[in-house]
Fold:
Amino acid sequence: MPLVTTKEMFSKAYAGGYAVGAFNVNNMEIVQGITEAAAEHKAPVILQVSKGARAYANHTYLMKLVEAAVEETGLPIALHLDHGDSYELCKSCIDGGFTSVMIDASSKSFEDNIALTRKVVEYAHDHGVVVEAELGTLAGIEDEVKVSAEDSSYTRPEDVQEFVELRSLSTLTITELSSRQSLAHSPALRTR
Structure:
């Protein structure tokens, strides 16, 4: 079975009434542990790779690990770029075999976020790849990007409508509260 897209996976999960786990990976032991556990439960799985993990483990090595997981388990597996911060990174992952990418331009202005997301969507969809985007900004540190509680913001519902009208945007991450934020910071959050 080849890699599948997250769109295909989410459609089946929605119809079947189940969730799909997404796990960040960066080495053989993590890929093997996650996919072997998923195989025990006959569960599809999303393997996510961050910019930092890709730099650490090397794109080619990661692809071979994921190919081995697909071959060994026979599971539906999607390979997803988690929080890609540039068109070039998303394009490289698309060209390199990822079935899903996230363009995270949430640190940019709303207009710049839309423009960059649109560019990634156009390239990705020409290659059969699913795109996830993010609205709002979480407080915390991820892949060397630090956002203070004062600079974080919830997703504004009125922005969602405009954002989802992008050609074939498949997944949208909105900002409410995540494990990277503590409840202590919630009062400082605001919408833009």
Q: What stands out?
A: The helical segments are 6-16, 28-40, 51-57, 59-73, 87-95, 110-126, 157-164. The chain has seven helices and ten strands.
